[in-house]
Amino acid sequence: MGKKIIAYKGFNKDMTCRDFQYEERKTYTMEEKPKACDKGFHVCEYPLDCLGYYNPAESIYHQVEILGDIDKDNEDSKISTNKIKIGAKIDIAGLVKASIDYTS
């Protein structure tokens, strides 16, 4: 991969997603080829798309870096990847600001 891809990921408040435990500042890799909506670590390029998958009342959000292969969903900005680095936690205001930056 040449270009660094920043995206956003929602988690349950305990930083789990689909029964997988994540930690901030850690990198996760899987051998499988990513397939959107099926296999891989799922993230959204457009920050506000995260709200469609993780309810703000029950969730937290983090900025992430995509480091592996990707497969894109055709419905929204969802991406599946086989390597991801979890970045800093971001609040709703941060998601909104990042969304404005994304569309600018």
Spell out the key features of this protein.
9 strands, 104 residues, 12% helix, mainly beta, 3-stranded antiparallel β-sheet, 4-stranded antiparallel β-sheet
Task: Please give a structural write-up.
The protein is mainly β. Helix content is 12%, strand content 40%. The chain has one helix at 92-103; strands at residues 5-12, 16-17, 20-21, 27-29, 41-44, 59-66, 70-72, 78-81, 83-90. The chain has a 4-stranded antiparallel beta sheet with strand order 1-6-9-4. Strand 2 (16-17) and strand 3 (20-21) form a beta hairpin.
How are the elements arranged and paired?
Layout: E1 5-12, E2 16-17, E3 20-21, E4 27-29, E5 41-44, E6 59-66, E7 70-72, E8 78-81, E9 83-90, H1 92-103
Antiparallel strand pairs: 1-6, 2-3, 4-9, 5-8, 6-9, 7-8
Q: How many beta-strand runs?
A: 9
- What level of helicity do the residues show? 10-25%
Largest beta sheet, briefly?
4 strands, antiparallel
| Alpha-carbon distance between the two ends | 24 Å
Counting helices, strands and paired strands, the structural category is mainly beta
Looking at the structure, what is the overall shape?
globular
DSSP helix count? Answer: 1
| Average pLDDT rating | 95
Spatial ordering of strands, largest sheet: 1-6-9-4
Strand content is 35-45%
Low-confidence sequence ranges: none
How much is the radius of gyration in Å?
13 Å
String of helices and strands: EEEEEEEEEH
